[in-house]
Design a protein that fits this description.
Distance between the termini: 20 Å
Number of domains: 1
Radius of gyration: 15 Å
Order of helices and strands: HHHHH
Strand content: under 5%
Helix content: over 70%
Mean pLDDT: 87
Low-confidence stretches: none
Largest sheet: none
Number of helices: 5
Structural class: mainly alpha
Number of strands: 0
Shape: globular
């Protein structure tokens, strides 16, 4: 078993233990990929140098997602990613341009919950 598969297996077990009966690694990884994609694009827009790190984190979730995605799940995976990305992008835009700073805190809390799933380097 390769290192990547061991890490994915460990993450699936971790997520399963944290959310018994509700674990869906495809859903979890797709949503996190979408959230990080939106954050990365927002950081590009705002010329935030953290965008490079966010891109690496998003790429890690893309790898995890492809590891758990079975044949025939691509449409579901893409739909989840798009929905999460759109919702996150909207919240970040409202936070930045319409004076709703609490939304940014909520988005960053969601992103942090995703990042806790990544192995620490």
């Amino acid at each position: 078993m390769g290192k990547r598969r061991i890490i994915v297996f460990g993450l699936v077990v971790l997520v399963s233990g944290a959310l018994p009966g509700l674990c869906d690694p495809l859903r979890t990884f797709a949503i996190c990929t979408g959230r990080l994609s939106a954050l990365m694009e927002h950081q590009w827009l705002m010329q935030d140098p953290a965008a490079d790190q966010t891109q690496k984190q998003r790429d890690a979730f893309t790898d995890l997602l492809s590891s758990v995605q079975a044949p025939g799940q691509a449409r579901r995976s893409l739909a989840l990613r798009i929905e999460a990305k759109a919702a996150t992008a909207q919240a970040l835009q409202r936070a930045a341009f319409a004076g709703h700073p609490a939304l940014r805190l909520r988005v960053m809390a969601q992103v942090k919950s995703c990042l806790r799933l990544l192995p620490q380097a």
